[in-house]
Amino acid sequence: MNSNNNETVQKGLGFSSILTLIFVVAKILNLIKWSWWLVFSPMLIALGLFILCYGTAGIVMLVKKHKAKKELRRMCKHD
């Protein structure tokens, strides 16, 4: 059995998935009269946060890469 602490594998459903599943079942059983947008809002919020986090990280990486290239060009000009 390999128990590597560096590898975290999440099995099962997350909070937003469970909440969405509950809302979908309640909507299908006519327990709630919400729009489908509201029923799927936990998943949409999770997706939005995922995009925001990875988008921000991507922009930070691009800025760092641009600054590194700029610094490299500046160092090459001094030679």
Written overview of the protein:
The chain has 79 residues and is mainly alpha-helical. The protein has one domain (15-78). Helix content is 71%, strand content 0%. It has three helices and no strands. It has helices spanning 15-28, 36-39, 41-78. The radius of gyration is 22 Å and the shape is rod-shaped. The N and C termini lie far apart (55 Å). This is Transmembrane Fragile-X-F protein. The chain crosses the membrane at residues 12-32, 38-63. Keywords: Membrane, Transmembrane, Transmembrane helix.
Can you describe this structure in just a few lines?
It contains three helices and no strands. With 79 residues, the protein is mostly helical. The mean pLDDT is 87.
Give a topology summary.
Layout: H1 15-28, H2 36-39, H3 41-78
Helix pairs in contact: 1-3
